[in-house]
Amino acid sequence: MLNQEIAQRFIDRLDRVLDFNINIMDNRGIIIASRDPLRIGTFHEVAREVLVKGLSGLSVSRDEILPPGVRPGINLPVVLDGNPEGVIGVTGDAPELANVAAALKSSLETMLEYERQQADAVARQRREIESTQAREFSTAQEIKSQEHAKAELARLESEQQVAVRAINKQREEEVATKNRERVLVVETETVEKERALQVIARERETDLQRYAKDKELENKFLRSGVIE
User: What crossing angle do the helices spanning 4-14 and 94-227 adopt, rounded to 10°?
Assistant: First the structure.
């Protein structure tokens, strides 16, 4: 959570109210922010020792042999949720800086906690927005799917109606054709019957005429026999 941007912002806020040089080291012991730009990026051996050994703080006096990159002062761990995030160091005579260093440590930890809460709030808001967008997208997709299903159903119903009308029309045409065929058969049978009746009538008339002639001849023959 402790990074160069937050650390330098913390130091810049204190630049006008404190005369002490302040260094902030990350969990590797590298100075990531300082009032002395030349020290940024250098290794701070004491800060690393505080982190590795889990010390509550480590003071360095002017009388000691100082390792490279270290100046007299006090160095305190910066802790967030029980985990060391880095070290804050204040340059100067250690006895005079104890209260200042403790206050700066507490202020930086409070700032880190606030930044984390802000980051959590932003992340939570982002998740809520993404969740809302996902629900809205899901709802939109569902509506779109329903509309597509309705359109597809309407299309199928329309096609079915067209197919039913075509089938009905075909059936009507088939029925009409069969009716015409039946009518034609009846008419043909009627004509054939009439022709047959006419033939029978003509044959009967012919038979009657022949019978009449035969009868007339018979009468003539009878009359001629009587006269003799």
Answer: 130
